[in-house]
């Protein structure tokens, strides 16, 4: 059994299938997702060589490339927002320009939704994996022989093991593995949206200061600007910003949905940008959303005899590595 139908849960199912002993049939795996359907929404991430190598091994990268999802990223460039000067880069070109590692890969900038679609397409080719949506887990019980999930709709299911891939607010952790280890607000929010590039009177786009992905550092935060598909007609705009804590979950939802307030905050934080496209993209960004970043204390309990936590449910990333993790 796997709780969580996001990237972590799906790739875990593929990995368990891929690495099953050849002497026996692949395990029967059922993934339970709380949402009524897989959440193919969200921001954009950078799938770097290690990630692409794993996705290739699992058969998901072929699905992503078949749909022409994402934009190749040879390097993440770093800029001073007030001078627009490039001050550093993290390159994925490798010594011969073909990529890093063996086999070599560069990187792929892609929306979370398109990445998930590619992994879902790979899942559908394995008869031993089933994805069940719309299931809210309300209780988990464990015996020396099995693990049982009980759902809000009254149904229950048992399996040999349970892997909790259900994120920072993991039900697997909070209701079974370590209930006292709750997520804490980090003081940082990620505000993101997508800006359609403007054309000049000749129908051409103004050149961007970055090739595929640019991190623009200012005094009050970092603004990420990047392409995420082959067309390169739209720019992903994402800002990491310090934001005071909001006490309730409903309050966070209201703040997150207030695109006008988020846009105003971003414009104020990055005022004085030397490149006029920075302001233009913030003003033009559609679907702006403010997402609070939560973290977990170090250490903690990751497993019982038959239940294991994986990903954010076990070890949310350190704040200093938050944006960097988008590129690892």
Automatic annotation (TrEMBL):
<comment type="similarity">
    <text>Belongs to the paxM FAD-dependent monooxygenase family.</text>
</comment>
<protein>
    <recommendedName>
        <fullName>FAD-binding domain-containing protein</fullName>
    </recommendedName>
</protein>
<dbReference type="InterPro" id="IPR036188">
    <property type="entry name" value="FAD/NAD-bd_sf"/>
</dbReference>
<dbReference type="GO" id="GO:0004497">
    <property type="term" value="F:monooxygenase activity"/>
</dbReference>
<keyword id="KW-0560">Oxidoreductase</keyword>
<dbReference type="InterPro" id="IPR050493">
    <property type="entry name" value="FAD-dep_Monooxygenase_BioMet"/>
</dbReference>
<keyword id="KW-0503">Monooxygenase</keyword>
């Amino acid at each position: 059994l796997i709780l969580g139908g996001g990237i972590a849960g799906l790739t875990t199912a593929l990995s368990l299938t891929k690495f099953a002993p050849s002497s026996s049939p692949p395990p029967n795996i059922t993934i339970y997702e709380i949402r009524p359907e897989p959440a193919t929404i969200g921001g954009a991430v950078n799938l770097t060589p290690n990630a692409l190598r794993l996705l290739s091994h699992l058969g998901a990268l072929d699905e992503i490339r078949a749909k022409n999802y994402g934009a190749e990223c040879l390097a993440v460039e770093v800029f001073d927002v007030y001078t627009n000067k490039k001050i550093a880069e993290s390159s994925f070109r490798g010594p011969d320009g073909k990529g890093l590692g063996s086999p070599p890969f560069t990187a792929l900038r892609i929306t979370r939704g398109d990445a998930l679609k590619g992994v879902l397409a790979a899942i559908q080719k394995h008869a031993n994996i089933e994805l069940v949506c719309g299931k809210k887990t309300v209780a988990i019980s464990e015996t020396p022989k099995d693990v049982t999930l009980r759902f809000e709709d009254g149904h229950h299911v048992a399996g040999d093991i349970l892997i909790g891939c259900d994120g920072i607010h993991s039900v697997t952790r909070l209701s079974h593995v370590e209930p006292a280890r709750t997520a804490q607000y980090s003081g940082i929010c990620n505000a993101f949206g997508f800006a359609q590039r403007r054309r000049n009177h000749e129908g051409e786009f103004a050149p961007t200061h970055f090739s595929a992905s640019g991190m623009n550092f200012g005094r009050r935060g970092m603004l990420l600007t990047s392409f995420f598909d082959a067309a390169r007609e739209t720019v992903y705009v994402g800002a990491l910003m310090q934001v005071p804590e909001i006490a309730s979950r409903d309050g966070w939802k209201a703040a997150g949905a207030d695109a006008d307030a988020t846009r105003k905050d971003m414009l104020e934080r990055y005022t004085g940008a030397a490149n006029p496209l920075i302001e233009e993209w913030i003003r033009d960004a559609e679907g702006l959303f403010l997402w609070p970043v939560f973290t977990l204390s170090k250490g903690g309990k990751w497993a019982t005899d038959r239940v294991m936590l994986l990903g954010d449910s076990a070890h949310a990333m350190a704040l200093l590595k938050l944006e960097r993790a988008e590129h690892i």
